[in-house]
Amino acid sequence: MIKKLPTLTSLIIYSIISLISIWRLLSFYGPIGYKHDWGYPQYGNMISNYASSMLYSWDEQSLGSELIYKSPCIYVLINGFFATLGVGGVFLTKFLVFSFVLGSAFFMFLLSKYYFKKQMPAFLSGLLYALNPLVFNRIVAGHVTYLFSYMLTPLLFLSFIKSKQDKRFFIFSALLFPLAISQLQFMIMLPALMLAYCLFMKDKRLFYCAIFSFLIGFIVHSSWLTPLIIDLSRTTLIVSSSATNDFIIKQSPPIYAAVFLLGFTHFLRAVNLVPFLIGGVIILILLLINLKSKQKFVWFFILLAVIGLFLSKGASAPFGELFLSLPFVQLFREVNHLMFLPAFAYSILIGSSYELIKNKNLFPLFILAIILFSYPMLSGDFMGQAQTYEWGNYGELLQSINDEPDYFRVLYLPMNQPIKPINLTHAGIDPMISSSIKPSFNQMITIGTDSDRITA
Description:
Layout: H1 7-21, H2 23-26, H3 44-53, E1 58-59, E2 65-66, H4 73-84, H5 89-116, H6 119-131, H7 133-141, H8 144-162, H9 167-180, H10 186-201, H11 204-220, H12 222-230, H13 232-242, H14 245-251, H15 255-259, H16 266-270, H17 273-287, H18 296-312, H19 320-324, H20 340-356, H21 363-374, H22 394-403, H23 431-434, E3 446-449, E4 452-455
Antiparallel strand pairs: 1-2, 3-4
Helix pairs in contact: 1-5, 3-4, 5-6, 5-8, 5-20, 6-20, 6-21, 8-9, 9-11, 10-11, 12-13, 17-21, 18-20
């Protein structure tokens, strides 16, 4: 029986697991794409072009349309930096998936280790946080900014709770916060999570750190947040364009799906439910061990899990009407964004469960349960739900458009709608269209007043 698991060893194991998660995709040339929101192009100059648009209030590539919110701006600019080094979508898409899995696991490991002071429970926490069905669905769907915020949250939370002991973490937490809210929904979830922790733990020093972090976050994102505050109608536009109650009701998963961290149907389409359910049930039973804990922070995460499950099921029974009456719910559009909350809580609680059991020889049972629960993450291509693509004349077409000296717009058909080339399994948006090297048109753009509106 292994008694210790050094930090470096855990990092190496997490790195191997991260490589296993994409090993089939690595064997094919071409970027990950043509599925849901995956839209990374093959070439670095197209990525740079998109990144540079984040520096302006108006995006010339979408007919001069104003981007209402730019919370992903820092994340996109980081991608643009890689692109200036000559890195294109072929490498970047696979590197991102690898980094998200590795970073999520290791940062949760560090957070859990702070709480439990031991390697083994921390290792379990990192494993569950990185390999659960929520992460699977987000990778398959190409929700890269969500995964970026999800990865950074444990590191932010660790810096936040250590800020009362070391002023350096006070500063680091404030600097990390603007990055961690790169995904719009995390801009609501993370402040709520941090403030709730301050109140539950009754710690004024943490409250000061939270407020300072929020202030720095506002300053960094002030270029697009300030207009929302000045003109409340713009805020209403974000809410009204995000989702209606009917859409939320349609997208709300049943309570059992929330309990097992299921959201999109990508996971259910790909998975043999027998091992998944066996692993999930074992994990839930192990989590119940925490009910005998006397640690205050453990009870915070138990409460977070319960509240998170209520929110994650959205408008589904029970208490669906109560959910719809809550503020800001329209901003979440697809309510499974909220599954971050129970996933975060489960990951800490699984480490706590291992700490509470008297028989430490049950460690293999914990590992087995997590593997059964998360085995699709280890298939190498996410059970065929992720794919790479490659075009023979893609570069020639790109170059011919780029070399034209005149300023013009390119009209692509079928514009910005999903298509499925005959050599691919899944349909998606062509990155040549979504990241055109020359200004293009977008069917989502409206110009003029309500009485005189032109839709491209």
